Amino acid sequence: MLIGELSERTGVSRRLLRYYEQQGLLEPVRQTNGYREYCDQAPNVVGHIRSLLAAGLPTAMIAGVLNCVQGDPAEPVLSGCRGMVDGLTAERARVAAEIERLTTSQRALDVLLEAAIHAPE
DNA sequence: TTTCTTACA
DNA sequence: TGTAAGGA
């Protein structure tokens, strides 16, 4: 299918679809006229890209994960990506650290707000 | 009509 | 990201 159809079926703009290609996330073949030709799995792949992006994964890592993610984006099926586990584990650790940092900020704000409640006008 | 690339707002 | 330009 051409970019227009893929765009309609995924709700992702043509512009963004071309951007995904630039990032190495999608690799459509080119017709003789230069038009991008996407495979039947493209809609699913785009779905995976969106969920992976939502998970906060950097595009560089998404490119790798896409090679072993299949099926409906709602219920991803992973196969043969043991090599990805380390990367994903590291990413999870990064997210956990971020949560800790934010939690610390939240506590600091709570202390301030608590003090504000008792502060005189 | 649809798509392509490049580049600017 | 949207959009315009200039082609195919």
Automatic annotation (TrEMBL):
Keyword terms of this UniProt record: DNA-binding, Repressor, Transcription, Transcription regulation
Pfam families: MerR_1
Keyword hit for RNA-binding: no
Keyword Ligase: no
All copies of domain HTH merR-type, residue ranges: 1-68
Protein name: MerR family transcriptional regulator
Organism: Kribbella yunnanensis
